[in-house]
Amino acid sequence: MVRQLGGFGLRCRRLALAVFGLGALISHPVFALSEVTGFGSNPGNLRMFKYVPASLPAGAPLVVALHGCAQSASSYDAETGWELLANRYQFAVLLPQQQSANNSSSCFNWFELGDISRGQGEALSIKQMVDRMITDHSSNTSKVYVTGLSAGGAMTSVMLAAYPDVFAGGAIIAGIPHRCATSQSAAFSCMNPGSDQTPTSWGDKVRASSTWTGPWPIVSIWHGDADFTVRPMNLTESMEQWTNVHGIDQTADVSDTVGGFPHKVYKTTGGVPKVETYTITGMGHGTPVDPGTGETQCGTAGAYILDVNICSSYYIARWFGLDNLDAVPPTVSLTAPLDGASVSGSVPVSANASDNIGVDRVEFLLDGALLQSDNTSPYSITWNSASSSNGTHTLQARAYDLAGNVATSALATVTVSGGTSGGTPVTVSFSNESANDGYVKANSGGGAPAVGTLESTLGLAIGRGTDSKFNRTMLSFDTSSLPDTATVTAATLTVSYRSASGDPWASPSGNTLVIDIKNACFDACTIETTDWAAAATANAVAQIPKFTGSNQASTLFNASGLGAISKTGRTQLKLRFSADQTATNYIWIGNNATGASLSVTYTP
């Protein structure tokens, strides 16, 4: 059935462009795509294209890639990296293509009931294409996957829900939950600001779309936090939909970073990953790519195919298990301090690590417990040995590669002097005081300061905002419960991630987020404009590295910082970047008692 839009066409065109923001795209030549005709009744009136590597063996996986509005199969194959990965990992790619007769902007009709229901319209056409690929190329029926951008991302949700018996997994890029909209009028609000529903409500929409009872497809969800076309709220709602379908909660079991971007994984009670999310900080509406020749790089930048230094297709292929699973562990060796060394005070601890694909991070262990980690070569931390007891201790490095393989170094035994003695160390945690936290913005140098007003909705800001003001965050802790006789031996601050625009650590290159400390309060204890320039007891006593998860711990406070922690009242901290950003680059961190905590270790 060929559906004609008639008088509906103008409004549909406006919807497609306003909702997905994909106007005229750069034209790309077709390289190795071939069109297939006669793949079934094709009730959605779609076209079928495929990319099949030479000499592809029977039983190979199949990936269905769905383009966005105004795009085509030929602008979504090599550009997104799927063609390169198909050759590398040996799988076929199916690229359905919308026609302007169905939608004036060539969007898949993700909001039309007749196109998103099992056995109907465009959804059935795509399923018929899958059947044709299985017939022609003996594709592995247990390894069929689907992914898409924008309207294609929304249609990915449709295919996973309507045909969970066909697809083993999917990846939704800048898309929306299944059946957020079932009419044109509802589509706008689904895109912006998004529809806030309960996980159960979302899950019920999937369960009602077929008679399938499981197992359900695994799902990877990607979204830019600066996407003003399809708002990032849709990432959360999609996560809630598919975690609910899998019968798991909405608390991440893994919160880390991949390629410098926040990444979360949601697992079953048995520890099996089922849903993951990637929040691409500073990215607008599009598919993330990372052009280059490295193992993790792929794609070509273009309109709504955005070079943000991470290639989504590579990590999606790994999530699907298409990468043939790297089984080679990394190598790691502890380079300092040497085995048998005597140490005191602040001790540099470093390691060398390498891998055939790439090192994800190196963790440093003290007596078998995690001391700190580093995800950037050269891998090193600073250990405050004064917080450890006098005598012998062991240090070790542990490296993780991008496939999750682990290797550990040989142990190094060191002897600590100038450490603690005469008492068992005690560690206490203090929560941030919500009544006294806040952020202050000012011109470079402190002119025209003003208290930030968005704390209740966005959190606490640090860095350069869109108004070209420089934001500093104030945190407050009541540390009066520390014993007067305590010797503070270690302290760290942990803050939670809310959102970001750009990368404030990279503007200018090598920028650092530092912590100033005040014994007592900066002026009045509550937030005020003078806090921006108020003098601290000690400056830059620790740094907060770029986030590697939903929470980030600072480096250990230096000696000046430890000495400034109050035992009789409040200890306040000011978070600021050491250099002014050259353009808009900022981060929002959590506020209130749950947003920040100060850990203090002392000996009685």
Automatic annotation (TrEMBL):
Database matches in InterPro entries: AB_hydrolase_fold (IPR029058), Esterase_phb (IPR010126), Ig-like_fold (IPR013783), Plant_Biomass_Hydrol_Est (IPR050955)
Keywords: Hydrolase, Signal
GO cellular component, one term: extracellular region
Gene Ontology molecular functions: hydrolase activity
Source organism, top-level taxon: Bacteria
Pfam families, per database record: Big_7, Esterase_PHB
NCBIfam families: esterase_phb
Protein's recorded name: Esterase
Species classification: Bacteria, Pseudomonadati, Pseudomonadota, Gammaproteobacteria, Lysobacterales
